[in-house]
């Protein structure tokens, strides 16, 4: 499994639902696009295992045309456990989940 580690700022999606995301660095996004298996998944998402601090969760990253990268949703439970707030920089460990 391919692993990545990076720092990114949490930002709040301006639409309905109030989800917080981090945008993956473009160099990591390019590597993931190169490694992506040809398959049909909703919204061309890629399954991942993410970690912030001591909290790990299974989710998917989603391609974003505006940033030319991927977006990682950071669940409210993760933000609470790790005392994370919108606008804060967070260290993310990401593993492609090819199970």
Write the topology of this structure:
Layout: E1 3-9, E2 11-12, E3 20-23, H1 26-35, E4 46-52, E5 55-64, E6 69-74, H2 76-81, E7 89-96
List keywords for this structure.
99 residues, alpha+beta, Elongation Factor Tu (Ef-tu), domain 3, 2 helices, 7 strands, DUF1905, DUF1905 domain-containing protein
Descriptive account of the structure:
The model has no long low-confidence stretch (mean pLDDT 90). It is globular and about 35 Å long. It starts with a strand and ends with a strand. It has a single domain (3-96), classed as Elongation Factor Tu (Ef-tu), domain 3 (Beta Barrel), CATH 2.40.30.100. It has 99 residues and is α+β, with helices and mostly antiparallel strands. The protein has helices at residues 26-35, 76-81, and strands at residues 3-9, 11-12, 20-23, 46-52, 55-64, 69-74, 89-96. The chain contains two helices and seven strands. The chain has a seven-stranded antiparallel sheet.
